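Before the break, one more example. Copy the sequence into your notebook; we will annotate it together after we see the structure.
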Amino acid sequence: HVQLVESGGGSVQAGGSLRLSCGTSGNTQSRRCMGWFRQAPGKEREVVAVLFAGSGVSYYADSVKGRFAISQDDAKNMLYLQMNSLKPDDTAMYYCAATGSSSTVYCLSRRSPGEYNYWGQGTQVTVS
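Here is what the structure looks like once it is written out:
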């Protein structure tokens, strides 16, 4: 079983920065593939970034490429999402997600919410 707990959301002005954190615990193999997703009101949940644990290799949605960075701290069992140059369109509930994966390529191809087995409760980000 895997548990994920997000924190770090809040309200910020356009152009500002936030860092989201996700505390992870549970079976290591079941969280080899980690992702950040977001869901705005009235819209479907969409992928923001994906990371294959321990590889340093990541995927970013085009809408956030160059502005957001996903990273992890294995020693602290933490996943992060550094968000810079925030825009009003980034306003959404942000979720940390995890699933198992046997390879970097397979993990980074997992961009649909249905491909993830474990979810956090979400943290709200509002950009005005």
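The helical segments are 104-108. The chain has a mean pLDDT of 96. Try to locate both features in your own notes.
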